[in-house]
Amino acid sequence: MDTAADRRRNMVELQLRRRGVVDAQVLHAMGDVPREQFVPESARPSAYDDAPLGIGQGQTISQPYIVARMIEAARLTPAARVLEIGTGSGYAAAIMARIAAHVDTVERHGALANAAARRLAGLGLSNVDVHIADGTLGWPDGAPYDAIIAAAGGPRIPDNWIAQLAPGGTLVMPLGALHSRQTLVRVVREANGRLTRDDLGEVMFVPLIGEHGWEDPRAPNMSPAARAFADAALPLPDIDDPDFAEWVDRFADCKVVLLGESSHGTSEFYRARARATQRLIERHGFSIVAVEADWPDAAAIDRYVRQRPGLGGSQSVQSVDSSTEAFAPFSRFPTWMWRNTEVAAFVQWLHGYNAQRPALAHAGFFGLDLYSMKASMASVLAYLDKVDPAAAAEARQRYACLDPWRQRPSVYGRAVLSGAYSACEDAVIAQLQSLRAQRIDYGSHGFEDYFDAAQNARLVASAEQYYRLMYYGAAASWNLRDTHMFDVLTRLLDAHGQQARAVVWAHNSHIGNAAATAMGTDRDELNIGQLCRQRFGAHAALIGQDTYTGTVAAASDWDGPMEIKRVLPARTDSYAFIACEAGVPRAFVDLRANVASASAALRAALMTPHQERFIGVIYRPDTERVSHYARAVLPEQFDAWIWFEETTALTPLPAATENAGGMPETWPFGL
Ligand code: SAH
Predict the structure, then answer these.
(1) Deepest of 90, 123, 538, 584, by most Cβ within 10 A of its Cβ?
(2) Shortest-distance Cα residue to atom 10 of ligand 1
(3) What ligand 1 atom has the least distance to the C-alpha of 208?
(4) DSSP SS3 for 180
(5) pLDDT value of position 106
(6) For the CA atoms of 92, 96, 97, 101, what is the dihedral angle to 10 degrees?
(7) Are residues 337 and 188 in the same domain?
């Protein structure tokens, strides 16, 4: 059987040389570049056929002979700077990059451009840059060019191209009516500025679509933003497809990757996040998964996935008044937020992943949130009972201050405010300080357990302040909570060493830069995303997820039961509406500025503020507008966005309280 190299040699002989292609550089480059790598898997056997081939998105890779003719006509020199319009598969760009000094290639379809960029990089071609943009505008940043080659046919020669052509430069493009044969023309800009033109024969190219080309044939009333979205979006395969999370590779160098969600009850968001996280752990060395759950609850999962023994080997901890209580992780409202089959599947995966690796290569699971004052106090006491019983007695006295509110800490703030009780602030801070003072001593019994206890003591101190601040206004307590979560994240990173990198799972409202939303501009609220942006700059990836409609798991009131609710179609003035209009059912969009794999046109189109929907654990469709929507500037809020046109409610696991009475909680161990 012929090898690819044989078929390539035949192609050069029979399709090129015999038909009159004489340029030795072109023949050499085409005999070299593996064309089979530029066509879809299924078309590989036909890669060297004497014909154009489909490459997806209704686009084609040109016939080898036409590629050779055009490049030959452009008379490239080794010093030439080249602009190609219509990257397509990237094949022609690869040939030109073999001949010329530098190639800029522009493609309007984000998915094609990204795939081409990967192929070109895979071949080690570092002198070609792929840009997602409307190529009828040329690429002003790289001008002037010695050659401009268009692989799509337009009605006239765009003025910008002529303007971007160096004196003596050559332009080759198909010219002619839509849906008919075109004439391949060559225009040379003489040194004196004069243009000369000659015709090179008939060709048949796909249309050049853009401002100075043909009109987009899609729904003529589609908004420009939706059009930009459709062009730039990377369509995603099914979530279970092995390549689903390939997009996350572009954030592999980040210190923190934050993965958001526009509701706490949507299966797709959890599963997409899990897939991206697995990839960051497996391929890119991330070792911390930090989620919007309470520290002690997540610690139960962490002990399971890293196979660390619990305190005293059981889940029971002694409470402040020395009575033994079973601690059931994830038993407070809203239980479905973490007790669901989607999270359980990830936990099982992480358990299995770690089991095959030495402890130092394990990835851990941690909680950033602060709603576990009671369990955290109990954890601190259980720890001290083990390592320093005298200190435990002292801690019991300090925490006794908060004892009356252990069950309902939210009442604490009101009691302090009314003056009936003095605040427990001094006591909880003293407890944290006394634990920290023993860092070296306690740490010698095991750093992990010490770190866990110190985090719990810190949580108690933050929670005490949180419940007091609640009565001064939403912004103050929100900011304290997000600052606490950011603080836990940075402590985790510090504790795991210089190279440590983390994935964060939380709601979009915590992860999208608050400064770019009404939270920041109207309410002075900050969040983890904003703090990460400030601390880590471009090494923090802020990634949101959103949907147009479907079902969601949520309650109608705080402490109410979980219901499966219908998610109303998104408002017409929302970002979700734009994405829905674009008609891509699942997509990834890169929104970053000045990044080659992102579309500047999409970013510009989305910079106009729009509404965004925030569904937490409560969803009230009837008052949706006031209770769930807020204004945002999406490209400033997120670096990237994962889009699902239709989503479904997650599947909850039985709540802890439904387990046999008094039995220690077994989740996730019992699964
Ligand atoms: N040179 C390519 C073949 C390209 S086919 C190869 O070797 O595979 C033409 C390409 O031009 C298509 O991918 C199409 O999406 C793109 N295109 C059409 N109009 C464009 C425009 N205004 N700007 C950039 N690319 C455009």
Answers:
(1) 90
(2) 86
(3) 19
(4) coil
(5) 98
(6) -150
(7) no
Index of the ligand 1 atom closest to the CA of residue 206 = 9
Residue 464 included in any domain: no
Question: Does ligand 1 lie within 6 Å of residue 135's CB atom?
Answer: yes
Listed residue (620, 646, 617, 642) closest to 553, CA to CA = 617
**pLDDT confidence of residue 331:** 86
Residue 166 near residue 144 (C-beta atoms within 8 A): yes
Instruction: CATH number of the domain at 152, please.
Output: 3.40.50.150
pLDDT above 70 covers a percentage of the chain that reads 95
Cβ atoms of residues 311 and 383 within 8 Å: yes
Split at pLDDT 50, 70, 90, the class of 284 is very high
Read off the pLDDT of each residue in 8-19 and give the average, rounded to a whole number. Answer: 96
Contact criterion met (CB below 8 Å) for 314 and 664 = yes
**Residues with catalytic function:** 62
Mean pLDDT score, 505-518: 98
Same domain, residue pair 624 and 486: yes
Enclosing domain of residue 127: 4-217
In this prediction the pTM is 0.86
**pLDDT tens-digit readout, 113-157:** 999 999 999 999 999 999 999 999 999 999 999 999 999 999 999
Q: Is 64 in the pocket of ligand 1 (CB under 6 A)?
A: no
On whether residue 193 sits in a domain, the answer given is yes
